Structures are given as C-alpha cells and as structure tokens.
C-alpha cells in the first residue's frame, strides 16, 4: 500500500469527484499529530484537515474559495464550513481577553452593560492583574502568530484560476466521527460534487 495510514485503516482517506468543469481530489487527516506535522504547527483538538486539489478542465477560469466546501457527517447530519485561520489561531488569546473583560464587567457592573468597557474603565484598579494577563496574552499570541502564519500559508487560496490549485481546509470536527461517515460537499461556481470517503 502506498498510503501512509496505519494497517488498521481500511477506508482510504483519499477521495475524488469531477464534472465537465472541474476535478476535485481531497485527502482528509483526522489525527491531531498528523495534522500538526502537515501544517508545521499544532492547531489543537477538534479539527479535521482537508487537503484539496481543484483542477479546472477548460481554459475558462474557475472561481475558487474555501467557502465552496462543506464537511458532512452522515451519522448526525452535521455540516461544517471551514474555519478561517484567525479563528483557530485566535483561540488562546480570545479566551484570555474574555476572562479579563468578565472581571472588569463584574467590578463595574452599574447596569450600563458593555458600554463602559469601551471607555477603558477598570484599567487602573487592579493594575498588577492587568499586567499579568497581558504578559500571558503576549506569550500566547506569539505561539498563535506562528500557527496563524502556518495556517494562512497552506490554506486553499481564494482565487480565480484556469490552472490546478491546491491547499488545506480546516474543518471543526469533534473526535466522535469516523472516517466512513464523512463526506466533502463541493458547492461552488463549477457545480455540485459529493466526495465520499467510503470506497
């Protein structure tokens, strides 16, 4: 077998489909360690990596976008659009920011909702706390910056092309779904294609 997948896996992670306008070839990776290896940085759990190659069949350019693709889980009917790189790489920093704002909100909750936070209230009391949070956030965002750049560099580009184009798509997926239950749906300008993994 040419596939690098372990001997237990019977279903191929490769799938393809085509119509008169395009051929699409896709390879899915579900193991976190394999995904990290392919991207060059670890995006964390809950992500399925899809490597997509779209090959236009005529000289007419085809509009390509990550949003043309949907990951379908047959077992529960869940349909997922790909993450944008910033949504994945921003997770750590977003959590810390939310914690910081929640603390400010409880300290200055005078029935004005979130309006006072915009004015920077709550920044002077508890100054040492704010500094701690910031330094943590900086460390996180440095790691996230490297991840963000790796994700962006390898993402399927949004482009118009008459030549083959290739890249990664990052789908939200929890660990309960098996490969045989997954399918990739292409719903783009070049038509509608269903790429099943169960062959």
Helix content: 25-40%
Instruction: Give the structural class.
Output: alpha+beta
Order of helices and strands: EEHEEEEHHHHEEEE
Distance separating the two termini: 15 Å
**Percent of sequence in beta strands:** 25-35%
Shape: globular
Stretches with pLDDT under 50, minimum 5 residues: 92-122, 126-139
Strand arrangement across the biggest beta sheet = 1-2-3-8
- Number of beta strands: 10
Kindly state the mean pLDDT as a whole number? 79
What's the short story on this structure?
With 199 residues, the protein is α+β, with helices and mostly antiparallel strands. The chain is built from five helices and ten strands; from the N terminus they run E-E-H-E-E-E-E-H-H-H-H-E-E-E-E.
Tags for this model:
199 residues; alpha+beta; four-stranded antiparallel β-sheet; 5 helices
Report on the structure:
The chain is α+β, with helices and mostly antiparallel strands and 199 residues long. The chain is built from five helices and ten strands. The chain has helices spanning 32-39, 85-89, 91-107, 115-118, 127-154, and strands at residues 14-18, 22-29, 47-56, 62-64, 69-73, 78-80, 159-161, 165-172, 182-188, 191-196. The strands form three sheets. A four-stranded antiparallel β-sheet has the order 1-2-3-8. Strands 6-5-9-10 form a four-stranded antiparallel β-sheet, with no helix packed on it. Strand 9 (182-188) and strand 10 form a beta hairpin. Helix 3 (91-107) packs antiparallel against helix 5 (127-154). The two termini are 15 Å apart. Residues 92-122 and 126-139 have low confidence and may be disordered.
